[in-house]
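Q: Protein A?
A:
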Amino acid sequence: MFQCSLLTRCLPTALALCLLVACGSPQVADPPQAAERPVIAPPATPDGDAVVEPPSPGALEVSALVSADWLEAHLAHPEVLVIHIGGEEGGSASTGLIPGQVRMAFEDIVVRDRHGIGFVLPEIAVLREAFESAGVSDDRVVVLTGDREGLFAARGFFSLHVLGLGDRVGLLDGGLEQWVEDGRPTADAPADAIRGSISAEPRLDLVVDAQFVLDHLEHPGLQLLDARPPMEYRGAVSGDDVLIPGHIPGAANVFWMDTLRAEDRPLMRSREELEELFLGKEIDSADELIVYCRLGLMASFAFFVAEWLDREVRVYDESYVDWTRQDDYPVVRIVPAASE
């Protein structure tokens, strides 16, 4: 019985060995090719049009300078918020607003009088509340227009940078003035704002004071830019509330209106023209800028221009009025007053 059982167990193995000897090594078949993945068409509407998935929140990008063509093409985009910052009767909004545009008061984003100096930034909480009330959120793109040939819009631009939303805001080239003149769609009344929410980290480093400027007057790679009219820069006239005519030592003068193609609307000169303007003032493209004016308003426009040109820039917000109130701070005067 034992021998029979052993033979039965070994016989299959022996047969297998014989087959290997007779037939050689087995051929290994190539693995089957993966089936080509079918192309799946996007879902379609009942009319047969492909359904386009909406972009993720915050995906829309905006330039510091927004063209009217871009804005008109994106007016219905859910992430786009258009704001007009006004403050004067008969301002640029009197001829009509952009459809869906929200209106803000300039008074809500500045302090008119802080120690005798006006147009300075309010506390961050106050600034955030003003823009949230107008509908500004972290995931929305804000396009600004404003009175005073764009100065108010530029102040809003600077303020939103301070709130940490610098990559989500732009100024409309030509403002409302050019928009209306071009015959683009308008609305008679502002839209109702839907409250937004801002959680971005504030950029307090964008604002400097007199002591910082004094400590960095001869700092290499740092350039002061005075955005006032040339007569004020030279000291031929002082300007309201300025105690000592002239300018801060080392400052170059780029009058903010010289960056425009027209005096009655914020229609910008080309980047090439502005780079040439800066170069003519001996402002190196690698320099970090500190911009100032008399009260911070013109400096806000200079801040916008520098941002559009991809320059590193900060604002001396209390500006030259504050500088002339400091004890023994140096001042340069190029020409004497007309009365002397």
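Q: Protein B?
A:
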Amino acid sequence: MRKQTNYSVDELFASITENAFEFLEKSLDEFEASPKFSIIHFASAIELFMKARLLLEHWSLLVEKIDSAKFDELFSGKLKTVNPDTARSRLKNIARDPVPKDVEDIFKKIAEHRNRAIHFGYHNAQANTELEEIVAQQCIGWRHLQGLFERNWQAYFINFANKISSIENRMLDHRHYLEAKYQSKVNDINSHRSGGNEVFNCRFCGYNSMLVTHIEGAISLADCIVCSTVDTVITLECPDDDCHQKIIFDSYSGPPESCSSCKGPIESWVSEGLDTGEFVTSDNMYDHIDINCPHCLSGVVEHYNHYICTSCFEYSKTIGVCGWCNEGQLGGVPEFSYHFGCEFCDGKVGWDRDDD
């Protein structure tokens, strides 16, 4: 007779999520006394949040070897679960809910920081520069987590709004460790501004330290001189002929739903507003290649000499076409894509492997 499990999937999701928040709280508690354990607990929290989201897609996706997945053994802790890289891969390729590229990059850095702390210690963690590095990573990591909770994963973590708010309040206090670094950069910030360039408030560290540099057309690059966050800033003009209000947004927050002046739709128009490429007609349709974003799987449009994703707003001057699946991709494709594939396929090698 099959042994009755003690947990439902929903109960396990709640348990993993509660543990993740507990790790976050412990990370902030330990920051001054033991930065090493603060790093380890913060990274562990991020890993647990990804696993909690993956669990809701299907419980077997948490198991490293899916073909050996047994429901009762997972819940009893007997089965080895996936590592962070595999969790991200399954969220992208199976759940079709990819962690955005900029979020993935900072999560990887935090995981690498954790591995360094575990294996080699953190002997200089009391030095101001080391503390600043840790705080900057945690501020950015938390802001990206909060973005996932508020947008991509809102429906899954809606019952944890109070926990999210509590961590946010604690992170606001956490940022004061960056004050010395901000003061050391004031002259650079003023110099950038006096050169006719804009400076924005950084939503990650909270300082007025985001140096904005125009790239081309509607695209600008924003680089925080305090926490090293890099963001894309988009500046468009409201399409209403009687309005022409300037619409400014960054890749983190995304476009507003409507114009603040005329209330006309903006979010649904952004793709058209960014597209400066040729219209597809019967004369050029066979020469046209649809380009997709390998980071978020969304569409890409031509914008003067650049190509830009209309969802995550990653941009590049380079595109490529996979030799195997013929998928057009922002930023180019890997070498030998015919054999080894791209972000959208496994290439001929994967095809032959599936046939075996």
